[in-house]
Design a protein that fits this description.
It is built from 15 helices and ten strands. The protein has about 350 residues and is α/β, with parallel strands linked by helices. Helix 4 crosses helix 5 and helix 10 packs antiparallel against helix 13.
Length: about 350
Amino acid sequence: MDYVKLGNSDLRVSRICLGCMGFGDASIGQHSWTIGEEPTRQIIHRSLELGVNFFDTAIAYQLGTSEQFVGRALRDMARREDVVVATKFLPRTAEEIQQGIDGRQHVLNSINSSLQHLGMDYVDLYIYHIWDYKTPAEEILEGMNEAVLSGKARYIGIANAYAYQVAKLNALAQQRGWAKFISVQNHYNLIMREEEREMMPFCREDNIALTPYSALASGKLAKRPGETSKRQQEDAFMHFKYDATAQQDNRIVERVVELADRYGVDMTQISLAWLLTKVEAPIVGATKLSHIEGAAKALSVKLTPSDIKYLEEPYVPHNLSGVMAVNKPVMEEEPVWVAASKNK
């Protein structure tokens, strides 16, 4: 396993981060394809054997049961100081807004709940999961800063955000002397590369780490045509993200297959080997031991510049999909450029 320093922090993380969205009680929560506690423990144990020390979960994953499974496994299998644990919080609920719970208190309530689930005193990285357009950003950032000051979080990160939002809040944090985001967790892989337009150059300039999710495009970049899985059959969110662009994306998938055959490796290794040339630590989900074992093998695959060009060549611009497509700012008035275009 290779390791890297995570942005402007002293966190030393494995180049592969184990994504824990697939862990949790399948009878509750958003997903029906998640795995139970015993297989979760087996995957975490194998991940540790492979040198993985970076684990990413969220309070939203199966109503907190992912955090519970991950916390119990890590407490039994590793020293707390040897692992880097990240979790995430959601926007305020309508009930919280009605009760007058502001953004600051929401963040503090959320981290307390997550720490209780994990059975830990602190998380290494606390992540703003989805931008809350109904709550002043300053309140959210103030709460995250207090989580750091109290020792409940060592560093903070953000997910599913635009570059301007990260820049805006980090500038505010700089002004106030508050904790700044050290990482961004957005949607990025071989068939969804819109992050390259603004977010990635911005993060490179400010040394903000990139830890993208959907590294294998929910399995599309790991399975040959005709292959399927329980997740691909039941994950409606995966279909929402990728079905609309399947025809153009398949050209890239075909090239992944071609290079996998040429190198004598699985598609997973080619897809992740490309991603590892772009980011610090991609988040790789696993619901089978073979998933994390395959991800670890990607570190030994070294693509040539011509390989990288060949994989990237068929890409065409994509509309935002997933969380970024549904969680957009609501404008009371049309932007000037929209109004102007209608008058042409």
